[in-house]
Design brief:
Layout: H1 11-23, H2 28-44, H3 62-90
Helix pairs in contact: 1-2
Length: about 90
């Protein structure tokens, strides 16, 4: 069963929403619904969620940005590993 949700969206959010929706051949409403579905699935399927608050990280915005922080560390790890492999193969 569908529900109606009315949102007041700032102009700086609405204009890009309309433009991106048009590029995809969708209405702003259709595109917004897809974004909401994606966001809800992301939060519902977050494997780190059960651990949030269980460790004192001294990072005030960890809850909101843990995916970004973990992604940045993974990139650094991969880069270091690639550089190490290059050093091993060239020497």
């Amino acid at each position: 069963m569908s529900k109606i949700l009315t949102l007041k969206i700032p102009e700086k959010v609405y204009q890009p929403l309309v433009e991106i929706a048009q590029q995809r051949g969708q209405s702003p409403e259709e595109f917004a619904i897809q974004g909401l579905i994606f966001s809800i699935q992301h939060f519902a399927d977050d494997p780190v969620e059960p651990f949030i608050g269980s460790v004192n990280s001294n990072i005030p915005n960890w809850t909101e940005n843990h995916d970004r922080y973990l992604g940045e560390k993974l990139k650094l790890y991969r880069l270091a590993r690639q550089q190490n492999q290059k050093i091993i193969t060239t020497s």
